[in-house]
Amino acid sequence: MSRLSVFSGAILAAFCLSSLAWPARGESVFEAISREVQVVYAQHQSAIVRIQAEDEHGRLSGSGFYIDPNGTIFTSYTIGGDTRNIVVCSGDSKLPAERLVGDARSGIAILKVKARTPFLVIGKSADLSVASPVIVIGYPMDLPATPTFGAVGGFDVKYLGRYLSPAYIRANVPVERGEGGAPLLNLKGEAVGILISPRENGTGCFALPIEAAEKVHADFLRFGEARPGWLGITVGKAPRDEEGPPEVREVIPDSPAAKSGLQKGDLLLGIGEKRIHSPEDVLDASFYLTAGDEVPLLVSRDGKETTLQARAVGIPAPLDALRILKDFAAHPGVSPVETIWKVNK
């Protein structure tokens, strides 16, 4: 039986804004939601696994999920990124796992086992909105796979005074120890995020958008490693219109931005496929840059829009000293959220 873990108002809002089937005759809204959660759990829990590993402090337990039939797994960085003796458990099966990539920047790790496996279909976090209903299925410590239902609370690039990149999904879904790395699912059973960290009060969590994990995975498939890109700009709020798009405050000499023709004072409207409305949006868009790839920059200069072409490069060594918040996570098996860019305001 699923655990319904949000207040009545949030449940009703999620129900009304979702694709949930309306209650059958004689069935309450809560019974209808429970039925939907049980369907998702029954159809997809076989693709979700418990992951055990060791670090310098001892044994760890977390969650993860298969993303293809060839045994590729997404999980959190804490459980799979900098650990040893990684074992994937599903039912009575225990398989040793190889780490393909551990990316502290995003908070995820990608593992692989030698087996044919069930897998989750990848969805789109971009289709989510505030109050969208979501489900987490994970392994709380030594307990069986457990579903929890909730709703999206927001999309955040700042938390407790720190900037996050990319923007994280704030899900009002309570999670427990051992559920770090579990998938965030929509009501189709598609993976739309990866559980990275609980919030301090335990009533919700932050999830990495699945597109960010797919970016890291695509880098690995192309280059054998995560390959973040860098443009070399500093932005801030435009002094003449603080509610409008951000203004370029600095263009670092010889950087990709400088070579593209970007100038101080330009208003930045887009990076790649992402529209820019605030300085914080630059943080989110910058995460998806890959070193070596060409990226269009949509700017407004003297009231006219123009598109510049920049070729991102690897992050210079001084900027690559990421401030990993080792103590952010309250429980083992979940990864910290990291601050990796500074936005001038």
Could you explain how this protein is built, in words?
The chain is α+β, with helices and mostly antiparallel strands and 345 residues long. The protein has 6 helices and 22 strands. A 7-stranded antiparallel β-sheet has the order 6-5-2-3-4-8-7. A 6-stranded antiparallel barrel has the order 9-10-11-14-13-12, surrounded by 4 helices. Strands 19-18-20-21 form a 4-stranded antiparallel β-sheet. A hairpin with a 2-residue loop joins strand 2 and strand 3 (58-66). The longest helix is centred in the N-terminal third of the chain and has 16 residues, at 29-44. The chain starts with a strand and ends in a 31-residue tail after the last strand. Residues 1-13 and 319-345 have low confidence and may be disordered.
Q: What is the number of helices? A: 6
Rg, alpha carbons: 21 Å
Q: How many domain modules?
A: 2
Please provide the count of β strands.
22
Give the C-level CATH assignment of the largest domain: Mainly Beta
* Biggest sheet character: 7 strands, antiparallel
What is the CATH architecture assignment of the largest domain? Beta Barrel
Order of helices and strands: EHHEEEHEEEEEEEEEEHEEEHEEHEEE
Give the overall shape: globular
The rounded distance between the terminal residues' Cα atoms is 48 Å
Instruction: Determine the strand fraction and express it as a percent band.
Output: 35-45%
